[in-house]
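Quiz preparation item.
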């Protein structure tokens, strides 16, 4: 599969090089010169060989189709494209699994078995407690008050004797940390629950 992608990309490079007449540096030369650097950069960011190959291919397609006449530093320009591609894939995935969890939670039947519902809540609570326990104390307190005790921001502010802005800041930090820590765990949780 890797060889097939590489062959496709090289054929695109060859066709494009013939059309342009190869001014300064041919697309093929650019590809040969930077392919390993771009691949390892993508692999480092994505931590997955298949993703790195896909993104690397996208990067070189963009490089080939782009106007390179105003580019001063080719290497940094190509790595910037690679960085943007990796970030957009990561962002798409993050919002994708969050949407999956939200849709699953919204679509759950209210008429399901009460015992099953209670067990689901207990399992979810245990998983979330594991994640909450890893948060710093100040942030954990705000997150627990908001999501476990279902207090509003002004109520949390009064309980903790801190400004509302501080509460919002700690909530935001807590959610970001939970997203990073629990991204895979929450995804597994949603996929495990959807099986039942």
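Solution:
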């Amino acid at each position: 599969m890797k060889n097939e992608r590489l062959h496709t990309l090289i054929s695109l490079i060859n066709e494009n090089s013939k059309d342009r007449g190869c001014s300064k540096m041919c697309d093929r030369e650019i590809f040969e010169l930077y392919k390993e650097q771009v691949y390892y950069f993508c692999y480092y960011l994505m931590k997955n060989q298949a993703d790195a190959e896909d993104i690397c291919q996208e990067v070189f397609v963009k490089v080939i189709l782009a106007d390179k006449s105003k580019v001063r530093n080719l290497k940094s320009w190509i790595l910037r494209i690679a960085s943007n591609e990796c970030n957009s894939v990561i962002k798409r995935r993050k919002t994708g699994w969050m949407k999956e969890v939200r849709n699953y939670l919204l679509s759950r039947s209210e008429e399901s078995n009460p015992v099953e519902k209670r067990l689901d809540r207990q399992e979810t609570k245990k998983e979330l407690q594991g994640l909450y326990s890893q948060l710093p104390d100040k942030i954990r307190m705000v997150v627990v008050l908001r999501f476990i005790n279902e207090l509003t921001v002004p109520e949390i502010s009064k309980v903790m004797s801190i400004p509302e802005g501080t509460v919002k800041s700690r909530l935001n930090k807590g959610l970001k940390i939970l997203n990073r820590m629990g991204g895979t765990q929450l995804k597994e949780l949603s996929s495990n629950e959807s099986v039942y």
